C-alpha cells in the first residue's frame, strides 16, 4: 500500500514539474499570446456581425447568421491547428492515426453535417428568409432567426418559440398569402341558391380588415354526401391570419343560416325492419 502511495506521489510531482517547465518555455507564452489575440479578434468579429445586423435589418439577417457561423468554425479550427503545431503536435500524423475513431466520429456527426449542408441550401436557394411564415408538420410560425444548423420560429397561434433542425427542410412549407376555404353543402340544396349565397359571402369577406381580396371559385369537389364549394381570399400569413380566419368563418356561418342552407355532416341512416316480416321472409326461403 505504501509503495502505491509513493508511486502516485512521484507521478504527481513529475507531472507538476513538467507543467512548471512548460510554463517557463517560450511556447507557453506564444500560445497564451495567440489565445489572447484570438479572443480579441473573436470579439471584433461578433461586433462586426452585430453592427451589420442592425444596419441591414431582417432582410440581411439570414445571410449574416450563416456567414457568422461559418467564420466561427473556420476561426476555431485555424486557432487549434496553430496551437497544436506550435506545441509540437504533428497534426498530419494525428489525423492519419485516428483510423476507425474517425469513422465513428463521422457517423456520430451525420446529423450535424446534414444540418450544415441543408442550411447552405436554404441560403443559396433562398428557400425562406427571416420574416417568412412557414409550416412544419402541424404548426405554423414566423422565422425569427436562422443559422447554418437550425431555424427558429415563433408560432403564430401561441407565440411560443420553436427550433427546427435544417435537415428537416423537406418537411417545411413556405406559406403564401392565399387561403382556400372549402364549404361542404348537402346534395339536396339547390345549386343556384348556394352560388348566390356564396357570392354574398365573398362580398362580406372582402370587407374584413387585413383581407386584400376574395373570390368565389365555385364547385370544387363531389364528396360522398356533399358538394364542396371553394372560396379564396388573400391575407397575411402571420399571426393576423387566425383573427381573419375567425371573422371569415363567422361570416360563412351567419350567411348560410340566414339563407337556410345547412352544413353537410357525416351521418348514418338506420332502417328498422318489423321482426315478423323478417321471420316470414326467412320461412319463405326455407320452403323454397
Radius of gyration: 35 Å
The helix content is 55-70%
Shape: elongated
- Overall structural domain count: 3
Percent strand equals 15-25%
Which sequence of strands runs across the widest sheet? 4-3-2-1-5
User: Which stretches are low in confidence, meaning pLDDT under 50 for 5 or more residues running?
Assistant: none
Query: What is the CA-CA span between the terminal residues?
Result: 105 Å
Mean pLDDT: 80
Number of helices: 9
From N to C, what is the helix and strand string?
Answer: HHHHHHEEEEEEHEEHH
Oligomeric description of these chains: single chain
How many strands, which pairing sense, and closed or not: the largest β-sheet?
5 strands, antiparallel
Would you kindly provide a written description of the structure presented here, covering whatever features stand out?
This protein is an alpha+beta fold and about 290 residues long. It folds into three domains: about 1-95, no CATH class; about 115-175, Roll (SH3 type barrels); about 180-260, Alpha-Beta Plaits (2-Layer Sandwich), CATH 3.30.70. The protein has nine helices and eight strands. The chain has helices at about 1-25, 25-55, 60-85, 90-95, 100-110, 110-125, 190-205, 240-260, 275-285; strands at about 135, 140-145, 150-155, 160-165, 170-175, 180-185, 210-220, 225-235. The strands form two sheets. Strands 4-3-2-1-5 form a five-stranded antiparallel sheet. A three-stranded antiparallel sheet has the order 6-8-7. The longest helix is centred in the first third of the chain and has 31 residues, at about 25-55. The termini are far apart. The model has no long low-confidence stretch (mean pLDDT about 80).
Amino acid at each position: 500500500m505504501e509503495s502505491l502511495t509513493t508511486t502516485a506521489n512521484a507521478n504527481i510531482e513529475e507531472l507538476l514539474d513538467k507543467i512548471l517547465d512548460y510554463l517557463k518555455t517560450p511556447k507557453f507564452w506564444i500560445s497564451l499570446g495567440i489565445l489572447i489575440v484570438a479572443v480579441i479578434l473573436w470579439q471584433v468579429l461578433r461586433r462586426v456581425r452585430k453592427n451589420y445586423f442592425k444596419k441591414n435589418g431582417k432582410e440581411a439577417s439570414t445571410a449574416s447568421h450563416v456567414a457568422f457561423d461559418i467564420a466561427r468554425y473556420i476561426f476555431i479550427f485555424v486557432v487549434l491547428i496553430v496551437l497544436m503545431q506550435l506545441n509540437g503536435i504533428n497534426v498530419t500524423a494525428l489525423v492519419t492515426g485516428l483510423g476507425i475513431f474517425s469513422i465513428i466520429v463521422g457517423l456520430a456527426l451525420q446529423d450535424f453535417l446534414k444540418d450544415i449542408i441543408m442550411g447552405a441550401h436554404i441560403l443559396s436557394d433562398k428557400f425562406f428568409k427571416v420574416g417568412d411564415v412557414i409550416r412544419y408538420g402541424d404548426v405554423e410560425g414566423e422565422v425569427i432567426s436562422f443559422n447554418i444548423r437550425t431555424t427558429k420560429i415563433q408560432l403564430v397561434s401561441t407565440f411560443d418559440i420553436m427550433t427546427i433542425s435544417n435537415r428537416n427542410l423537406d418537411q417545411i412549407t413556405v406559406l403564401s398569402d392565399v387561403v382556400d376555404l372549402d364549404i361542404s353543402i348537402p346534395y339536396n340544396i339547390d345549386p343556384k341558391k348556394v352560388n348566390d349565397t356564396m357570392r354574398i359571402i365573398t362580398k362580406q369577406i372582402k370587407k374584413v380588415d387585413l383581407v386584400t381580396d376574395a373570390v368565389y371559385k365555385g364547385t370544387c369537389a363531389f364528396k360522398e354526401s356533399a358538394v364542396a364549394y371553394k372560396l379564396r381570399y388573400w391575407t397575411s400569413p402571420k399571426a393576423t391570419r387566425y383573427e381573419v380566419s375567425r371573422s371569415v368563418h363567422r361570416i360563412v356561418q351567419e350567411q348560410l343560416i340566414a339563407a337556410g342552407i345547412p352544413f353537410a355532416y357525416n351521418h348514418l341512416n338506420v332502417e328498422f325492419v318489423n321482426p315478423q316480416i323478417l321471420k316470414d321472409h326467412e320461412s319463405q326461403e326455407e320452403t323454397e
